[in-house]
Every structure is written in structure tokens, then in C-alpha cells.
Amino acid sequence: MRDQAMIIMPEQEPDVAQSAVPILNDAQIIGATAVCAERGFEGYSRYDAQARLASLRFSFTRGGAQTWIDDAELASLGETGSVTALRIEMAIAVTAGSEPAISTREAPLRMMVGSVDCYGIDDATILVDDKASVDPDELAELLEESLFLPDEDRGADSWETQRSNFQMEARHMANAVLLGDEEALRAQLAEAIRRNVSWLVPAGCTMTATVTRGAVEIMMASAAT
């Protein structure tokens, strides 16, 4: 490891870090292995001489117009949805000093999340490259890693319950972004039934439900013996 090229990564906000991590973890793209910054090593010549990430920028193309933003301008992401191109640009300081030499790397992203000082899904912006292959599980996982922050108030639900509720909300949002509102609603209803109703159905039985607003009609059938 002593002879392996490394790039020091400063601490980032969770949404920025999680959106960028597929690229920052790709040594072929950034030209080295990404390592976390360690303040305790500052002042040692070997550590101070390491290349380090100086800045990040993201770009998205919507309606034929490309917009570049840095990691402090996530409010400029605009509306959640698909874009025709999504990219990340990394400025890497390859030498030490007050005016280091900068090497710039650029790569495509499949998806990203911008939270702008909040951890709620409803207030976040989600962008997905419309040419990329992204499934709802992947996007829901990115939302959780970027935005989930449990409420530690004494009266709050347990960490497990809060996480489970967030995961269900994240999956619904991912379905809505990638599959559309109708499919998202269908998946949300199926998940609610699986969690809250399916365990009530006796073994060997099949339940069929007809649901309208304000009314539920249930039919039960036993499996043929």
C-alpha cells in the first residue's frame, strides 16, 4: 500500500458524498485509490504531499441546456426527474502548496440526490440520467444513504421503525421517479398489504380484496386438497 497512488478525500455532506461515491471509488477514473482525510496526519510530509480532491462540480442537461453547479449550490438542481445527461467533475490537487497544480477529471453519473440542508425526501431533488439503467432498489438505497437521519428525541419511534418507514417512503419515491405515479401507487399498495395484511391470511388460504374509497370487500378461498 505504501507505493499505491492515493487521493485524499475531504469530508462531504452525505448527499454529495453518496452521489459521487461510484466515481470516487473507481480508481481507473480518478487515477488512484480514494482515502478519507485524517487530520491527525497533517504536518507529516508524506501525508501533506498526497494528491487530494480540491472541489466537485455536477452538471445536468435539461431541455438542451447544460447547467453546472458546485457542491454548495444543490438548490440549483431544479425539479426532480430525468435529465438527458448527468456528469461529475473533480478538481484534484496533484501537488502541495498554496497554489497546487490541478488535474481535472470528468465522468458520467447515473443518478444523484441533492438535499439542501434537509434530510426529508419530499424536499430533496433527485436526478436520473434517462439513458442509464437504474432500478428502484438502487435509487431507494441512494436516498436512504443520503438522507436518512433518525430522530433522537425521547418520544420518537425506535431507530428500526424510523428506518423501516424511511425505506418504504424511499421506495415509493424511487418508483414514482423511475416508473411513474400509477406504478408507484400499485407498488405502495402491494407493500402496505404485504406488511400489514398478509400475515393475517391463514396458511393454505387465498384472499382476494376489492377496495374502493371507503369500502373493502374480501373473498377467502381455501387451497384445494
Q: Which properties best describe this structure?
A:
225 residues; 30% helix; alpha/beta; 6 helices
Could you please describe the fold and organization of this structure?
The protein is an alpha/beta fold and 225 residues long. 30% of the residues lie in helices and 31% in strands. The protein has 6 helices and 11 strands. It has helices at residues 14-24, 27-30, 45-48, 136-147, 159-179, 181-196, and strands spanning 6-9, 33-36, 51-62, 65-70, 81-83, 85-93, 102-108, 111-114, 125-129, 205-212, 215-222. The strands form 3 sheets. Strands 1, 2, 3, 4, 6 and 7 form a 6-stranded mixed beta sheet that branches. A 3-stranded mixed beta sheet has the order 5-9-8.
Spell out the helices and strands N to C: EHHEHEEEEEEEHHHEE
Q: With helices defined by DSSP (H or I, 4 residues minimum), what is the helix count?
A: 6
Q: Report the strand count.
A: 11
From the alpha-carbon coordinates, what is the Rg to the nearest angstrom?
23 Å
Helix and strand content put the structural class at: alpha/beta
Low-confidence stretches at least 5 residues in length (pLDDT < 50)?
none
Approximately how much beta-strand content do the residues carry? 25-35%
Overall pLDDT confidence: 86
Shape: elongated
Largest beta-sheet details: 6 strands, mixed
Distance between the termini: 64 Å
- The helix fraction, in percent, is 25-40%
